[in-house]
Known about the structure:
heterodimer; A: 2 domains; 3-stranded antiparallel β-sheet; two-stranded antiparallel sheet; B: alpha/beta; TIM Barrel; 8-stranded parallel β-barrel; two-stranded antiparallel ribbon; about 20% strand
Amino acid sequence: xxxxxxxxxxxxxxxxxxxxxxxxxxxxxxxxxxxxxxxxxxxxxxxxxxxxxxxxxxxxxxxxxxxxxxxxxxxxxxxxxxxxxxxxxxxxxxxxxxxxxxxxxxxxxxxxxxxxxxxxxxxxxxxxxxxxxxxxxxxxxxxxxxxxxxxxxxxxxxxxxxxxxxxxxxxxxxxxxxxxxxxxxxxxxxxxxxxxxxxxxxxxxxxxxxxxxxxxxxxxxxxxxxxxxxxxxxxxxxxxxxxxxxxxxxxxxxxxxxxxxxxxxxxxxxxxxxxxxxxxxxxxxxxxxxx
Amino acid sequence: xxxxxxxxxxxxxxxxxxxxxxxxxxxxxxxxxxxxxxxxxxxxxxxxxxxxxxxxxxxxxxxxxxxxxxxxxxxxxxxxxxxxxxxxxxxxxxxxxxxxxxxxxxxxxxxxxxxxxxxxxxxxxxxxxxxxxxxxxxxxxxxxxxxxxxxxxxxxxxxxxxxxxxxxxxxxxxxxxxxxxxxxxxxxxxxxxxxxxxxxxxxxxxxxxxxxxxxxxxxxxxxxxxxxxxxxxxxxxxxxxxxxxxxxxxxxxxxxxxxxxxxxxxxxxxxxxxxxxxxxxxxxx
Lengths: 291, 285
C-alpha cells in the first residue's frame, strides 16, 4: 500500500496532468494539427503514483481518458465561440492558436462561456505567431463581446424625462469596441460562409466604432459615429449624462452646438432600445470583467 | 408516488433534461412532461435570452436544478461566488431540490470542466461532508449528490465507492441522486457487481434517479448520454425502484439529441417498472 499524498496534492497533480498537450491517438481523434511527441515523464509518474490499473487498462491509459476529454471539451467550446476567427485563420492556424492559448491560459471560470476571455490579448502579445494578427485580435475581441452580450444583465431603462436627474448607466449587455480594423465586416462575411481565402483582410485603419448588444432574442453588431461612441463610453465611465456630454464636447472636441440635432437622434435611439438605465447597487458585469 | 424529505415531498414523475434543440417544441406544443431538469451553470448568468426562455418554461412546468460545477469534493472547498449565483437561480426557478455530483473539478482557481473522481478516503469524505452541509445551509432547499461515472480508481482509496457515497450522504444528511447508468459504467470500468452497489446505498435517501445511455468501447465504457438506455441499466433501474419506491426519474440525453418525441418515449419506458412495483406491493399486502 502506498503512502497517502493528501487530497490537495492529488488534485494538483491530476490537474497538472490534464493540462499537458495531447499526443498520439488522442490527438488524432481531435481536430488539432499533427504534433510529434508524447506525454511527459511527469504525466506517466502521476498516473502510476495515483491510479490503480484495471483488468484492461494501465494507469496511464486511465488518466489519458480524462486527459483527452479535458482537451476535447475545451476545444469544442472555444471553436463554438469563435467561428469567424476560425474562418479567418483557417483550421490549421486556428487550432494551433487555440492549443497554445489553452496551454498558456487554462480555464479560470466556472463556465465555459468565459473560456475566450483572454484570447484577444493573447493574440496581441504574439503578433508574429498569428496570421493577420491585428485583424485576428480584433475579431477575437468582437466574438468575445458577443459572448458577454449574450449573458450580461439587463436593467430597467430610465424614463427619458429623468435622463438628466441622478446617475445613469449603460445597459450591461451593450459592449463598446473601438476597432482599428474592419473586424465587424470580416465577422459578417464569415457569417455568410466566406472561406479563409475570401476573407483576406485589408490594411488596418482607424475609426471603426462598434456596439455589440442584445435585442429581443438576437445579438447585434452595429457601427456608430465616433462622437456617439464617445458619449456612450463616457456615460459608462462617469455615470452622468451631463459629465459625459461635457467631456465629449470640451475635452475631446467631438461635439459642437450645431450637433444638437444628431445628439437628440442618438438619445432617441438609445432610449428606445433601453440602453440608458439606473446603475445597479453592484455591477455584475464589472465583477465578471475583473481578473 | 410519494416524495421524501430529500426531494421536498414532491410528487413528480418522469422528467426530461431541458435541452436547446427541444425548446421551441416545448414552448409551442406544451407536451405532457412531469418536470424538466436544467443544468444550473447554463443559467447562472445575469440576463439574456436563455433566462427569458427559462422563465417561459417555468410558466408551465416544474423545473429541478442539476449542477455540474459545485465540486463538493474539491480540497479547497466550494466557491462562494458560485454558490451565491446558484442560490439566485434557485430563487428564480423554485427548484424543490437541487443536485450536483460527488466529485471534484477545480484546484488553485483552474477548472477542468469535468466530473473528476475522488479517492475514497476519510479526508475526501470529510471535505465533501463539510462542503455539502454548507451548500445545503446556504441554498435552504434539500440537496442531493449524484454518483459519477468514473474511469480511474486511486491507490489511496480505503473503501468502496458505495461505502463512500453512503458515508458522505449520512454524515452530511444529504439526499442521493442515484444514477443507475453511472453505476453500470463504473462497474464495467472497475470490475464490480453493480447490484451490490445498488443494494448497499441508503435507499431512504434517494431523492431522484438518473437513467441514460452510454458508449461501449473495446476496453472501457464512456458515459456519453447519446444512446437509448440499454437493458442491463433498465434491470438496475427496476431493482432501484423496488428498493426505493417510485422515485422522480430523469432521462439524460445530451449529445446526438433525437427529436423530442423520441426522447420522451424513451423516458416514459421507466413507468412500466413503477407499475410492476405497485402490482407486487399490492399482491404482497
